[in-house]
Design a protein that fits this description.
5-stranded parallel sheet, 13 strands, 15 helices, alpha/beta, about 40% helix, Immunoglobulin-like, single chain, Rossmann fold
Length: about 400
């Protein structure tokens, strides 16, 4: 199963058209806890269980943070798309002029909330930050920025960059085993010339004055670019050839489909290519892309789906459970107190309660005894050699 973490204002509507063709609209589960359409009285676990029992879910997507694999209780492949943090926030602000359901539409259109005020307000809502969505509940002991950067390198199969959209799509398509991801632009913010000039000026001002408020997002954004650049470099000239073929197709599509780029798109259609795009399926450029995507990866990545917890630490003993949902191999955990290693042990003791809770196996427990564990202060347990920490139960 795949999981696309949709960070708001990162070309999401355009990406939806691609996802529908890659996974089929019926195979996509939109998961967005707390949204206006969320069913009343239904927990996240109940929602996921109910939907998966009713149909074959191939992709879970929505505005939700990293970590849904712990509720799905199965191995998943994560991917996402980022955007320059200032450009993303400015886009969100000016979206109010064309989207009638924007939560701050009235105050923005009335001039009561300036772009600078909007950025300051958003900076105080960390749950909407790109870094928070990428970090989820992951804990490295060094804050959200470090957790997001760690996940970008070790937990996501691919994270693209909206400013490098076609490169990013080709990168994601290769890693995720997709067909050629030809697309039509959708839900582009419609602004008149005067408003476009205002948007440009506002973005320049915010970059100068307020970019520091988005420091965590910029750290994650730059790390995502580094990871993507390293991957593309390893792919060599084959990537460049496929990218040129992709650009050729997209240039022709944009020329013919430009008048529809302002339309919204939801998961309503099946996996078939729209009529405008059918003719490209047999072209030389399309074949070049398809052949490239079918070739082996130069840098395959193993991305563990860790979950687990510490159940107790008292009387000189510590116990809990840990597993990687994407692997059948036992997980090793590291026990530390105030940064000093006490043990490196394998989590393979029987835990029938974990199996009964819906996880795939029971041989995931650990227990370790040591005089230093009489006092739980300063004690932590890491997955493998770190830096991700297991959480404490409760």
């Amino acid at each position: 199963m795949d999981v696309f973490i949709h960070i708001p204002k990162t070309a999401g509507s355009t990406i939806r058209t691609i996802l529908s063709r890659q996974y089929g609209a019926d195979g996509i589960l939109y998961f967005e806890p707390g949204s206006p359409g969320w069913p009343a009285g239904v927990t996240q676990q109940q929602f996921l269980d109910r939907e998966r029992e009713a149909r074959e879910v191939r992709l879970v997507t929505g505005h939700h943070p990293y970590g849904v694999h712990e509720r799905l209780k199965t191995g998943v492949r994560y991917f996402s798309m980022m955007r320059d943090p200032v450009a993303r926030q400015i886009s969100n602000y000016f979206y109010a002029f064309s989207y009638e359901h924007h939560p701050l539409r009235a105050s923005i259109r009335a001039g009561e909330l300036t772009p600078q005020q909007f950025i300051r307000q958003q900076a105080r809502l960390p749950g909407t930050a790109q870094s928070h969505l990428l970090a989820g509940a992951s804990d490295t002991g060094a804050g959200v920025r470090a957790a997001a950067c760690h996940n970008l390198e070790h937990a996501f199969q691919a994270v693209g960059i909206a400013e490098r959209f076609d490169e990013s799509l080709l990168y994601i398509a290769k890693v995720m085993n997709w067909h050629p991801p030809v697309y039509m632009r959708r839900n582009v913010t419609r602004l008149d010339d005067e408003r476009q000039a205002e948007r440009h000026d506002s973005e320049m001002q915010v970059r100068t004055i307020l970019a520091h408020l988005l420091a965590d997002d910029y750290a994650a954004y730059h790390r995502a670019q580094q990871v993507m650049d390293q991957w593309i470099a390893a792919e060599g000239s084959a990537f460049a050839t496929a990218h040129a073929a992709f650009a050729e197709i997209q240039h022709d599509i944009a020329r013919q489909d430009d008048d529809r780029k302002y339309a919204e798109y939801f998961f309503q259609n099946d996996a078939r290519l729209p009529a405008l795009m059918e003719r490209y399926a047999g072209s030389a450029a399309f074949r070049t892309m398809a052949e490239y995507l079918a070739a082996p990866l130069a840098l395959p990545r193993a991305t563990p789906n860790y979950t687990g917890q510490i159940d107790l630490c008292r009387g000189g003993a510590i116990a809990g459970w840990a597993l990687d949902l994407g692997s059948f191999a036992p997980v090793e955990v590291q026990v530390l107190r105030y940064g000093s290693e006490l043990a490196h042990i394998r989590a393979e003791r029987a835990r029938p309660d974990v199996l009964a809770a819906g996880y795939p196996r029971a041989d995931v427990g650990f227990r370790f005894e040591h005089p230093a564990l009489q006092d739980p202060s300063g004690v932590e347990v890491l997955f493998g050699s770190g830096p991700l920490r297991l959480r404490w139960s409760g």
